[in-house]
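for the recovery benchmark. tokens below, seq after
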């Protein structure tokens, strides 16, 4: 996908604030954060949504979400955590390359996710 912004970010062609990287994923800070520490798990291979992601990669993404939620909670001392994953325009997806939102929550933050 030559024109996909998350392909370029995940594969390092466009710089982004990276919290974690391995052979399958990059985790970056969201450009328009809903709360302090709002991050995105982005696979390096292009899949548009949950319907397209291979099972093995989906399982790895969930394990990484668990690991990152723990690390972010320790680092930021947040009070709660949302993990959000949008599929399709009607569900609020704006970038059509699968990603998971990691959203630290703070008491009375009104982050509204
Ligand atoms: P969606 O609405 O598709 O679930 O989420 C897309 C997310 O990607 C939004 O939260 C938006 O702020 C974020 N985003 C869009 N473009 C960029 C970008 O170029 N860099 C970063 N770091 N985040 C982006
Ligand atoms: Zn892509």
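predicted aa per position
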């Amino acid at each position: 996908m030559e024109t996909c912004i998350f392909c370029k970010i995940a594969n390092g062609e466009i710089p982004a604030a990276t919290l974690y990287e391995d052979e399958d994923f990059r985790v970056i800070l969201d450009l328009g954060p809903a709360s302090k520490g709002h991050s995105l798990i982005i696979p390096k291979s292009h899949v548009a949504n949950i319907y397209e992601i291979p099972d093995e990669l989906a399982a790895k993404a969930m394990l990484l979400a668990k690991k990152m939620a723990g690390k972010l909670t320790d680092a930021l001392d947040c009070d709660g955590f949302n993990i959000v994953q949008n599929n399709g325009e009607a569900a609020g997806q704006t970038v059509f390359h699968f990603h998971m939102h990691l959203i630290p929550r703070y008491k009375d933050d009104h982050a509204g996710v």
